[in-house]
Structure formats: structure tokens, C-alpha cells
Amino acid sequence: MTLLGRGVAGIAAAVRSKEASAREVLAESLAAIEQLEGELHCFHTVMAERAEAAAAALDEKVARGEDPGLLAGVPVALKDNMCTKGTVTTCSSRILENWVPPYDATVVTRLRAAGAVVVGKTNLDEFAMGSSTENSAFGPTRNPWDTARVPGGSSGGSAAAVAAGMVPLAYGSDTGGSIRQPASLCGVVGVKPTYGLVSRYGLVAFASSLDQIGPFTLSVADSALGLEAVAGHDPADSTSIDRPATSYAGLLEEGVEGLRVGLIEDFVSEVSPSCAEAARAAAEALGAAGAKVEEVSIPEVLHGLPAYYVIAPAEASSNLARYDGVRYGLRVGGPDVAAMNARTRGAGFGKEVRRRVMVGTYALSAGYYDAYYGQAQRVRTLVVEAFARAYERFDVLVAPMTPSEAFRLGEKTANPLDMYVSDVCAVPSNLAGHPAVSVPFALGAEGLPVGVQVLAPALGEGLMYRAAAVLEQAAPPAARGPVRPGGERRA
């Protein structure tokens, strides 16, 4: 078995015990990236020199007998909307094509403190607005299972990098499914934590009341370690939950005996037969492991999608107003400030970003605020209340993750509404601020991975991971990566 094949926990244990060096692990990761990047386009920036220096420093730390950290020597990739000091952070947008942040995001600081080695920045839909990574200004990422298909989005680069075995751990951001949806389409584990559990400081904002950072891994156990490394209170983030980080890895063996599980039937009826069958089979697997499983109807969740596509663009229109050609990023000249601002934004933002900014600005404008934004917020409250009622009866909920298997590149780009439907099962958890995980659980009719999601109430990550671990054991190994481009299994 290769060093990367040992996963997060195995790599950290090998480096800690001096069985392997951080430099040896990094060399495997960089070699895999060099071999596969040309076909998949997962990365914008590969930070080879900085990573080699970090790995060498970590090996010296181990040699001195010092604690190298929870993620000792683990190669990590970061979605390119997380600030990294001294390294270009583009958000896959021309408007930030050459922007170099003067500071690190809190997540980056914590990963380095935990001994992780950051190897590069991954591709995404521009400013995280998309469900296929086709909205990147620098070209799409391809799904390693079938390079004619999308990896999902917006964190498609991170998901595909893990699925292809380039890195064992990557981080994305989830505003309306942008971790869980690509995790499902790429056959990896993807977690959106409770809102406020992971600091957003240094995450370039899309929709501030919805954005949350989380890990991609090949296993549930590795996901638990990846979340533990970055979670916890951060005074630099006013929305950060003021409580110490929790260890989740120790909970995975507790199983689901006696847990009350609800299968959300409203989502099951909205997805393809393969995805519906996977969700039902997942519920049955939890039942076979001792959980008490029932179907539950939460019709309010189906109103989440239209509410999300008012709230998120409204927040985006406010957050992206800072890209004005004056403070940083691209500047296109004009005869006056207004013309310069308009030309800069027209040249720097792609079509989908401009579309959402316009929608959001309209929803916030005088005379329309109450009819659109205010109404969407009321619907959001209905979703939150509906989940609260459901969690009075159930400890966790199970649902399909995506409406279908990975679709073909270009298949949905001509119809934005068709693309938005990809998020139907994902956005309610963002609106509520609750945690959810996508677990690879089946191969669909076309031989592509299908994920199932486990949802939990706020700060219910422990319960969520317990259920996810049981599903992982029940799922066929063929449903998850790592795979080479074309779907061939990697060692």
C-alpha cells in the first residue's frame, strides 16, 4: 500500500512514529498531482516549494521528539476561496486573478498548527456560485470517474483531488451543498458542519449567513479527524460558536443501536430511481444495525430551494460590492469612477456571478425587499421550525444527496434553473445551519457513485458521524474513490 493509501489517520501515525517522513508522503502527493492534473484540472496553484519546506520542518520536529500534531505530515488541498498569505487566492475569478492575501484564514493557521502540509489551492465555481465547477474563469474540473462529466460544485476541485488520490484530505466551503454535492458525485465523504463550528475568518464571502468550511476525505474516520483539526471557537469570527472543539473519532464505534432515524420521503420523490433506491437502502442498513427507522414527511424542505436562491444572491450582491476596482483586484480604467467600476465588474465577473448579483440587488431594492427577500427569510424560518419538529421525533435524518449521478460537462450550462435544481436536497441544511454529511453508498445505473446524506440538529456532528460510519460499513467499497481518470481503481 502506498503512503497516501493509508489515509489521514494512517499517514499521521506513520509520520509520528518515524515509519515514514513527511517529505516521503509529500513526494507521493506531488507525483500524483503531476500525473493526473493535466486530465482533471483540480488545482489552480501547486505550492510545491512551500510544501517541501513545511514537510522538512515537520520531520525536524519529529526528530526532536516534539508533538507533530493531529494531522502530522498529511498533504492537504484548499479550495481557492480560503486566504493563504503570500499565495494567490483567486476564487476562480478574473477579478482576483492576481490577488495575494496578506494573511492566512483561521482554517489554514489551524491546519498548519496540526502538522498538515498544504500542497495547493483547488478549482471552484467562481466565488463558489455553481454546482458543476464549470463556472470557473480558468476552466472546468473533470470528474475522475468519467472525465466527460462534472465533479459537482462549487468545491469540485477539492472533491476530485481526493477522489483521484492526489491528496487524502481537502477542504471546501458549503453555502448550498457545495461540499456535499460534489462529494456525492465523486464518491468521497463530504461534511458541512454546524454553522459557526468552523471559523469563516479568511474565507472569501459568498453568502455570510450560509457559508461554512468542511473536509473531503475517503473515509468517515478521516473526516472526523479533518473536522476536529479546524473546529472550535475563533474570536476573529463573530459568528463562531463559543465552545471548545469536540473529538469525533472516538464516537464512530458506538453504532446506531436505539437511534431514531427518519427517512425524508419528500426528497426521495424528487430524485432519480438510483438515488432514491440508495437512500432507502441506507435507511434499511441503519435499521439492520439497530436503529429505529421511519419515513417522515417534511414538506417545508422543498420550499428551501427558491428561498435559498433569493437569500444567497442577496447576500452575494452585498459581499461582492467590495470588488470595485479601487481597493484590490482587477481594475479596468474609465473616464470616471462609475464607468471604471462598471467596466471592472463587467470584465472581472463571469456570467453566473453577474446573474446572481443582479438577482440579489433586485431582491434588496426599494419596493421589492418585502416581496422577495423578506418573504424568503420567512420561508427560511418555516424550514428551521420544520426541522425542529422533526428532531423532536428523530435523532438524525437520512435523505438522497443529489437528484442524479454526475451529469455531462455542458449538459446544464444553457439552463441555469436546471442547474439550480442540483441543490434541492442540500440547501435546507444551510438555511437551518445544521450539519450534514454525504457518504458514498452505491453505484448508480451508469456505474457512477451515488451519495446518501445524514442530517443532524445543530451541534449534532457526533450523532451524524455515528450514523455515517454505519453506512460506510454497509456500502460497497466500489462506490468510493480513489480512482484514476476513467474510473480505474487506484492502489
Secondary structure layout:
Layout: H1 7-16, H2 22-40, E1 43-46, H3 48-63, E2 75-79, H4 106-113, E3 117-122, H5 156-163, E4 169-173, H6 180-186, E5 189-192, E6 213-217, H7 220-230, E7 260-264, H8 265-268, H9 273-288, E8 292-296, H10 304-319, H11 337-348, H12 351-364, H13 370-393, E9 396-400, H14 416-420, H15 427-432, E10 436-443, E11 449-455, H16 461-474
Parallel strand pairs: 2-3, 2-4, 7-8, 7-9
Antiparallel strand pairs: 1-3, 4-6, 5-6, 5-10, 9-11, 10-11
Polypeptide structure, described:
The protein has helices spanning 7-16, 22-40, 48-63, 106-113, 156-163, 180-186, 220-230, 265-268, 273-288, 304-319, 337-348, 351-364, 370-393, 416-420, 427-432, 461-474, and strands at 43-46, 75-79, 117-122, 169-173, 189-192, 213-217, 260-264, 292-296, 396-400, 436-443, 449-455. The chain has 491 residues and is an alpha/beta fold. The protein has a domain at 4-259 and 441-446 and 457-479: Amidase signature (AS) enzymes. An eleven-stranded mixed sheet has the order 1-3-2-4-6-5-10-11-9-7-8, sandwiched between helices. Helix 4 links the parallel strand 2 and strand 3. The longest helix has 24 residues, at 370-393. The chain is globular, with a radius of gyration of 21 Å. The model has no long low-confidence stretch (mean pLDDT 97).
